[in-house]
Structures are given as structure tokens and as C-alpha cells.
Structure prediction request, 231 residues.
Amino acid sequence: MMDFDDYSLLLAATIVTLVALVVGRMLHQRMTHSKAGSSGPRGMSWMEEHMFLSDCFPKEANIRPACNVINCEVFFKDGLPAADKVEKLVKEDLLSFVRFSAVPDVKSHGWKMVDVDLANHIFTYKPVENRRALDAKVDEIVNADLPSDKPLWQVHLLPAATGAEQKDCVVFRCHHTVADGISLVQLLDKVATTPDGKPIKFVNYKAKKAAVQSSILRKIVYNFLYALEWV
Prediction:
């Protein structure tokens, strides 16, 4: 009988896992492409599909659908954008991206185009009196699940009351099935504008700061602490 040490078993398990992942991905892509005609130009990846189904983690983890939503809170120093301008921006720019005008279609592993009613996606609230009230309202918003029968995004406009300590606030919600963080940053670059409609120029404030020269002692201490992680 041939004996296997722990390393051999680990190596064998790793190889089997990689093969299973490759084969599974190939089968998933084959199924996706074969049914793409009814679900839009691009299908969902395996991860996107199961994030939508909220079954990426064991049931014991008790992961709610809202946990798979990206929430972005933005404060406006010079006043909240008018609701009609927000709607215009959404209609002309945001909805041109397929996934913001579609709902997941699990049966075909893709997306199904739908008519978008902005009343179900853009919400304007009464002026918020103070920061505590704003935090409570934002907490309520981000803990709510997105309706699965509508495109998986929302915009919440939260104006500050006169004399309030906090600024006007907008909360943008987007399901991770629609896009990840990097994709949303790229989307912002294409969609966001200044109040007069011009493209936004992003400024890297860190680049303006002079690089801090580390001393030899600091480098030695840092490298020593870093090495401890591998001991």
C-alpha cells in the first residue's frame, strides 16, 4: 500500500479543487452563452449569480441579502442636487448601462431587460434635523433589502434641515451582482458631473504631499514586524 504524507494529500486536494473550478467555470460559461439570447448581451458570472441568491456562504452565517449591497454615502457642501437633475442624469447616463435597466434572470444565468420606473429607485426625504437623525435614517436605508423584481440600485436624497450640523446627503445603493467597487468607480468617472454639467476632475491629494523619508531604524523595525507574520 502506498503511503501519502500530509503534503501530498494537500497537493492532491489542491489539484482536484483547481480542476473542479476550471471545469465548473467552463460548464457555466457554456450554459450562459447557450442561453444568452434571452437575457441580454452579457451573462452573470457564477459569483454574481450566487451573490444575488445570497447562498455564497453557509446558512449558519445568516447572511442577509442586504449584506451583498454596496452602499455609498456622499455629502454635498454646496447643496443637494435637484431631484429633476438627478432623474435626468439617471435617464441619460446611468440607464445606458445594461445592468441598471435589467433584473437578474437566474434560469438563463443572465439579465432580463425591464422598463425602469424611477419612482421605485429615486427617493427624496424630508429635511433631516441633525446628524443623529441622519445616521438613524441611513442605517434604516442600508439595512433594507433591494427588491429582486426591480433593477438592483437606488438613490436616496437626504437634505439637511436649515441650521443642521450635517451637510446634505445622498446614499447610492447598488447590488454587488450589478457591479463591484472598481466598476462603480469607473462608472462614476463616466456619469458624474459638476453642477454646471462638466466632467468631474478627480484630484489625488496624496500626490501633492511630499514623500516621507523613512529612517533606517524605522525600516528595520517595520521589516522585523513584517517578518513576524511569517514565523
